[in-house]
Specification:
The chain is mostly helical. It has helices at residues 2-22, 26-52, 60-74, 93-114, 122-131, 133-157, 178-201, 211-231, 236-248, 254-271, 275-281, 293-300, 308-317, 325-333, 350-359, 377-385, 387-411, 415-428, 437-470; strands spanning 364-365, 368-369, 477-478, 481-482. The radius of gyration is 24 Å and the shape is globular.
Length: 483
């Protein structure tokens, strides 16, 4: 209750300040306050559900709902801004609020689903961390080295992002083989980030100071954040780092983990107003420097929206813009090219077809992106099943992450259990998804798990060899005395 009341008070002060500063209409501040009140209630219920079942904060369904609800909370300020990035969305403030309120109800149902889930518990996950810290420490060091090596290679080959003056990006590659360097950069980078924060937050045993491991952990975090923020000019890494920090803080104490996440929920709506200054500071040029507060909210907070795209599709097409074949197309697209070299002959762009034929909203033209829509599980559901998909698909993902986590818990033992589970948790934190990326996230989780498992086995074997080889040979006693 304290967290709920604190959230409402802070959100109320923020909305009041914006209403006075922007001379906002009653509809603007009224819908914003109602949205944030719903967010406060949903967030409080979420923490109560997680606490009631003693679920690990780093478990996949909890990680998925954590990031989803952070997006939902930050987006509560959108009513103060026009929809400048997507003028084709003909949505009134009331329609935007109805869509958001429906999304909040779905997230609330997701919290209810957590109350019926059995694990993974905090005790099992962090007991595994304590038992296998030696393996995790070696995995972290290798991941940091791999992350730095891949980043140097991509820089030398001329790779960057759409916001940098580089020849290639992850969407425009020099040759197919470079995909493996890009994949290695993502895998090693996120492993280094997660394990680095987990290691830094874990209580240190007395008398066991490991400066090399501690330095590697800090370096892995700083390199991943610095490369993404300063070179690729991607802002999302900051939010993801703070979220992982909060989830990993449970390694020190459950209370600390919850407090960090609750602080994020309370402060992020206000902190998000600095998003434009951050955008300009890192050198992105997609917004003008003289940007007022309303346009700043439009450029930053609306990018965190989960439901406007789905609501606009339903309103503008009257519920007719959907095609279930988008799911089969996404599943086929997730099959690796090595296993299915001719998949492009069978994979059709159902996503663009739905938007073009029913709405006249082109997303791509000859491989170039025309509009970067606010994809989410809600919009994916609408594009596959219509209005019912708005409810079914986000909840299905919660159930799927839980089912996968239970299967992992019943199938894997030893170091494999936590490695595979943490790989799935990393995939669960990506909520800006369309149908094409949902199975790809699971495929990447498998890739992360396979790479981590190989590293643990190989490096673990080498470590045992080195330990045995470095031992002093025992003194052998012979008949005539010591040899």
């Amino acid at each position: 209750m304290t967290f709920f009341l604190t959230s409402v008070a802070m959100y109320g002060l923020l909305v009041g300040w914006l209403a006075v500063h922007l001379q906002a209409l009653s509809g603007e501040w009224g819908f914003a306050l109602a949205h944030l009140a719903i967010a406060a209630a949903v967030n409080a219920h979420f923490f109560a559900a997680v606490r009631a079942r003693s679920l690990a904060l780093l478990s996949p369904p909890v990680a998925y709902l954590t990031v989803s609800q952070i997006y939902f909370t930050v987006n509560g300020l959108k009513y103060f801004s026009p929809i400048i990035l997507y003028p084709q969305f003909d949505l009134s403030l009331a329609a935007q609020f109805i869509g958001s309120a429906a999304g909040g109800a779905v997230l609330f149902l997701g919290g209810l689903m957590l109350r019926r889930q059995h694990g993974p518990s905090s005790g099992r996950l962090f007991g595994w961390v304590d038992r296998h810290m030696g393996e995790l420490r070696r995995l972290m060091v290798v991941a940091v080295i791999g992350s730095i090596a891949c980043k140097v290679a991509l820089f030398q080959l001329g790779y960057g992002s759409t916001y940098t003056e580089t020849t290639y990006t992850d969407a425009v590659v020099r040759r197919y083989g470079d995909f493996f360097i890009i994949l290695g950069n993502e895998i090693f980078g996120f492993i280094a980030l997660l394990l680095g924060l987990l290691y830094l937050m874990r209580p240190k045993p007395l008398g066991r100071v490991r400066p090399i491991a501690w330095t590697s952990a800090l370096l892995g975090v700083l390199v991943q954040v610095g490369y993404s923020l300063l070179y690729l000019k991607a802002r999302m890494i900051l939010l993801l780092t703070f979220v992982i920090f909060g989830l990993a803080a449970e390694a020190r104490s459950r209370r600390l983990g919850e407090r960090v996440l609750q602080t994020l929920f309370v402060l992020l709506p206000a902190v998000s107003l600095l998003g434009v200054q951050l955008t300009l500071w890192i050198g992105r040029t997609n917004i003008p420097e003289e940007t007022g507060l309303r346009l700043a909210i439009a450029a930053v907070n609306r990018r965190a929206d989960l439901t406007d795209f789905a609501t606009a599709i339903l309103v503008d097409s009257r519920g007719e813009a959907h095609d279930a074949r988008i799911i089969t197309s996404a599943m086929l697209n997730a099959v690796p090219r090595v296993m299915f070299p001719d998949k492009q002959l069978f994979v059709t762009d159902v996503y663009s077809r739905v938007l073009d034929d029913h709405l006249g909203w082109p997303a791509y033209d000859k491989g170039e992106t025309l509009a970067d829509y606010q994809d989410s599980a809600f919009s994916a559901g609408v594009m596959s099943f219509g209005a019912i998909g708005f409810i079914v698909v986000p909840l299905a993902l919660v159930a799927l992450f839980h089912a996968a986590a239970r299967w992992i818990g019943g199938t894997f033992r030893g170091s494999l259990y936590g490695v595979v589970l943490l790989a799935l948790s990393l995939a669960a934190m990506r909520v800006e998804v369309e149908w094409a990326t949902i199975p790809l996230n699971f495929r990447q989780a498998i890739s992360i798990a396979v790479v981590c498992t190989l590293i643990v086995w190989v490096v673990g074997g080498l470590h045992r060899v080195v330990v045995v080889a470095s031992r002093t040979p025992p003194r052998v006693r012979t008949a005539g005395g010591l040899a």
